[in-house]
Amino acid sequence: MPKKSMPPTNVFPRQCEALSARRAFPRQRQHGPGALIAWWMGVTFCLAAPLSLDAATPTKLAATSFGAAGEVSGSLHVLDTGNGRWMIDCGAMAEKSPAGQPPAGATADEPQSPSVAQSLPPGVEAVSAVFLTHAHADHLGRLPLLVDRGFAGPIYMTEATAALAVPMLRVLLRFDQDTVRHWTWSKQSWEQAERDRRTVYVHWRNCRRRQKIAPEAAEQATCSMQELGARCGGSAARRKVALCGECLDEQIAATLRNVRPVKYGVATDAAPGVRVTFLDAGHIPGSASIQFDVALGAKKRRVLFSGDLGNHLSPLLPAPRAAPEADAVFVEATYGPISRKASVREQPAAFRHAVAEAVAHGGIAWIPCFALERTQRILYELHLAQREKLLPDRLPIYCPSPAAREVTDVYNVLRPRGWFSLAITADADAFSPQEMRFRTPSGKRLPRPCVILHTGDPLVVPWTRRLLGTLLPEPSTSIVLVGYQTAGSAGELLLHGATKLDLDGQAIPVRAKVHCFSCFSGHADATEIDAWLSGISKQATLILVHGDREQLLARAAQLRGQGRTHVMIAKPGETIALE
Ligand SMILES: [Zn+2]
Ligand SMILES: [Zn+2]
Ligand SMILES: [Zn+2]
Q1: Are residues 550 and 403 located together in one domain of the fold?
Q2: Domain assignment of residue 95, given as a range
Q3: Which pTM value belongs to this model?
Q4: Where does the pLDDT of residue 29 fall: very low under 50, low under 70, confident under 90, or very high at 90 and above?
Q5: Which of 138, 460, 489, 498 is a plausible cystine mate for 493, CB 3.0–4.6 Å?
Q6: Per-residue pLDDT at 86 exceeds 60
Q7: Helix then strand then coil, % of the chain, to nearest 5
Q8: CA 243–ligand 3 middle distance (angstroms)
Q9: Percent of the chain at pLDDT above 90?
Q10: Span from the CA of 60 to the centroid of ligand 1 (angstroms)
Q11: What is the pLDDT of residue 393?
């Protein structure tokens, strides 16, 4: 049994090796996902030359929020300085319900079924540069679409964000069912897939596999992946359609080709009179607040975008850097006016004991969580529980998610490089508890006891639906909820005390124990954001973003009550003058 997940080796090629690494792509793919990260890292260190600066200086200062305005998802803001238009984030929108509303309480940083085939505000492909706050889907998910539409300018982000962008883009693009493409596949592989119940791989880029298809054997169609799947007979068909892995890697590489890595606290001259500085936001590794210093003639103006702000609860990351003085701040309000109870500090220990109790009774602990950050945070808690001897060393821990595996590999690479708290930096096993297995449990019977970390809704995937059907009626099972549960998911139904779940037309009784822990949230609450804002004058303009409507209204009232005189709520598409 593999004991630990090992980080990919040689992930950071030296500068001089970088261009040859770039030429070698995509042949490096055969070395696994780490190779794509390695390829990217090398390229960007070499190509991170400063922009050639236009002589024009700023003539105006205005900002427009096109996403995360009155909602949590799709973060996208444009700051216009007259001599350049600067995009802050290019995030995916969460799927809307039939009523056109995002799912209730949609605070997920990995929206359920986010689609990259979404519209972009008209003309944004002509912005001068993009600045990404962090690698969550709701902040980078529309980047492939922007590049597809012809954006070829620099994309600034931290090294850690760029490394995490690779697995995040892979998830988004692999499951992108909606974008219309000109697809090519081989007639023979289509027939073979039908015969052998295999997957047929289709191409939309001129990858090496597509080049091997003889013109007379090629079949083509222009449609979405979903329509192509339907042509195969839908989900009931023996044949399945999937995007070719090489096309996928080529698209990720194309999306990240113009990435320029930046360091916290080191200013970049984006244009004359426009200096941009990334500040540690403590939300996930590499996350940043972004500060724009703009010289409008003799006037100096500072505009700050908070990005998603972390909290003081995570042992993984240092707390966010307090905001510097600024004239205008776009500040997140995921928690609205709410502050957590002090008792949440005790919850991680309670979580470890809840898992230990399930295991001591020979049961299975099922923990649904997101692939980025939450999975690694839980792996760290399981590692602590093993160190505290609460869990046996030989306890199998399953995480059947390729995305979680790839993100964890990136965490392991970043861990000694200064992106984490000192305790994590010094702990080589922080994300590698004993007996960690990034795969589906094999065989008919699960080993008992065991722990299963599961990304996504188990109701969606047939094998997890079946497994849930056998686990829920067992009193020895513990369902451990560690954060936001998407509306309508199994987690959400159980959180609200469902005594039965409908699985494939069968009412399954819930006898399992359900535990819920709110301490693993990656967002600052109202009190923490107040502390973050404490260095900013009461007269500064605060523009609230990244929150549900009700939360935003309540938060605005709370901030006004604190004596803040200029509090606004961003409206989609509305331009705010900041001169
Ligand atoms: Zn977010
Ligand atoms: Zn986030
Ligand atoms: Zn291909």
Answers
A1: no
A2: 49-154+258-339+524-577
A3: 0.88
A4: very low
A5: 498
A6: yes
A7: 35, 20, 45
A8: 7
A9: 70
A10: 28
A11: 82
Proximal ligand: closest to the CA of 106: 1
Tell me how far the alpha carbon of residue 72 lies from the centroid of ligand 2, in angstroms: 10
187 CA from centroid of ligand 3 (Å): 15
10 C-alpha to ligand 2 centroid (Å)? 29
Mean pLDDT of the chain: 86
277 with 141, same domain?
A: yes
One-character DSSP codes across 538-568: TTSEEEEESS-HHHHHHHHHHHHHTT-SEEE
pLDDT value of residue 105: 34
The mean pLDDT value for 172-186 works out to 91
pLDDT at 262: 97
User: For the chain, what is the domain count?
Assistant: 4
Listing DSSP states for 183-220 in one string gives EEEEHHHHHHHHHHT-EEEEBSS--HHHHTS-GGGEEE
Q: Which residues are found with C-beta within 5 Å of the ion, ligand 2?
A: 109, 136, 308
With helix as H, strand as E and coil as C, how does 129-168 read?
EEECCCCCHHHHCCHHHHHHCCCCCCEEEEHHHHHHHHHH
How remote is the CA of residue 395 from the centroid of ligand 2, in Å? 31
Kindly state the tokens that stand for 476.
Answer: 């020895």
Report how far ligand 2's centroid is from the alpha carbon of 196 (Å). 42
The whole-angstrom separation of Cα 231 and Cα 452 is 35
Per-residue b or e along 281-320, where b marks 16 or more CB atoms closer than 10 Å to that residue's CB? bbbbbbbbbbbbbbebeeeebbbbbbbbbbbebbebbebb
Q: Which residues surround ligand 1, an ion (CB under 5 A)?
A: 109, 138, 308
- Check whether residue 56 and residue 108 sit in a common domain: yes
Q: Which of 183, 169, 321 is nearest to 243 (CA)?
A: 183
Looking at all shown ligands, the one closest to residue 73's CA atom is 1
CA of 215 to the centre of ligand 2 (A): 45
Question: Ligand 1 center to residue 203 CA distance, Å?
Answer: 32
CA of 327 to the centre of ligand 2 (A): 24
The closest ligand to the CA of 138 turns out to be 1
Q: How many angstroms separate the alpha carbon of residue 547 from the centre of ligand 1?
A: 9
Tokens of 165: 């962008």
Q: Which ligand is nearest to the CA of 521?
A: 2
**Are residues 367 and 477 located together in one domain of the fold?**
yes
- Let me know whether 293 and 239 are in one domain: no
